[in-house]
């Protein structure tokens, strides 16, 4: 996937990162931001942005989908590894080198429509079992808000399946994902807003600052020239504001 750099400056920045000749980008399945069909590459709003960022940088890379807990753990412990889309929370800030933002996400709590979960506020929601997936930032958010009954699954899809089978009462998800699921007829409904977050690429601290700068420069350009907005609209969503 080596492509000539767009500017001399970008070539120079990437060229200085001799240790970053190959990068692994780990991620989870989270349509429409990250998904993969039976054939073809990993796609989606976030994945397409990562691919566009790397087109201008002379570094080989690959993208792998895996459970989120493993994806973020690898990025923190394994050299030349980045994870996306990661929420830039205070707890994570110093643990990674960041390229921001791929997305701005409003996280909400949702319930299975017709399940009889009588909650309209976060305080009322604390009476119910809330599910999320391991090492997702919403796990920390729920803990900080002192939700007493948190059910942890391996992936977002497993948590959603539990919700639809009434094995849990509530779960968090981004407003964008909720809108897509709602359009597809998935029987969920919004209860309350949980948090707002900026999401981006979180890289192992061994990834050189030259590489991080080159990636951030390209992302900034994509935001300014409308490329990010075009990627959003290609997948049926309006870009963040």
From TrEMBL:
<dbReference type="InterPro" id="IPR001638">
    <property type="entry name" value="Solute-binding_3/MltF_N"/>
</dbReference>
<dbReference type="Pfam" id="PF00497">
    <property type="entry name" value="SBP_bac_3"/>
</dbReference>
<keyword id="KW-0732">Signal</keyword>
<feature type="signal peptide">
    <location>
        <begin position="1"/>
        <end position="19"/>
    </location>
</feature>
<protein>
    <submittedName>
        <fullName>Polar amino acid transport system substrate-binding protein</fullName>
    </submittedName>
</protein>
<feature type="domain" description="Solute-binding protein family 3/N-terminal">
    <location>
        <begin position="22"/>
        <end position="239"/>
    </location>
</feature>
């Amino acid at each position: 996937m080596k492509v000539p750099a767009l500017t001399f400056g970008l070539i120079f920045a990437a060229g200085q990162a001799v240790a970053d000749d190959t990068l692994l980008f780990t991620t989870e399945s989270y349509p429409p931001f990250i998904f993969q069909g039976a054939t073809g590459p990993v796609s989606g709003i976030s994945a397409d942005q990562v691919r566009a960022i790397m087109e201008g940088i002379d570094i080989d890379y690959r993208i792998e989908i895996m459970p989120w807990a493993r994806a973020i753990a690898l990025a923190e412990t394994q050299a030349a590894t980045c994870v996306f889309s990661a929420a830039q929370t205070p707890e994570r800030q110093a643990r990674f080198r960041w390229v921001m933002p791929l997305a701005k996400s409003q996280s909400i709590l949702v319930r299975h429509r017709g399940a009889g979960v009588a909650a309209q506020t976060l305080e009322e929601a604390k009476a119910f079992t809330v599910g999320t997936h391991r090492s997702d930032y919403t796990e920390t958010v729920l803990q900080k808000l002192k939700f007493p009954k948190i059910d942890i699954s391996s992936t977002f899809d497993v948590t959603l399946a539990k919700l639809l089978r009434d094995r849990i009462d509530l779960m968090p998800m981004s407003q964008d994902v909720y809108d897509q699921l709602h359009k597809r007829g998935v029987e969920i409904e919004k209860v309350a807003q949980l948090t707002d977050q900026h999401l981006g690429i979180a890289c192992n601290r061994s990834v050189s600052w030259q590489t991080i700068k080159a990636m951030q420069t390209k992302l900034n350009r994509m935001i300014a020239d409308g490329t990010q907005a075009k990627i959003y609209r290609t997948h049926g969503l309006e870009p963040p504001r």
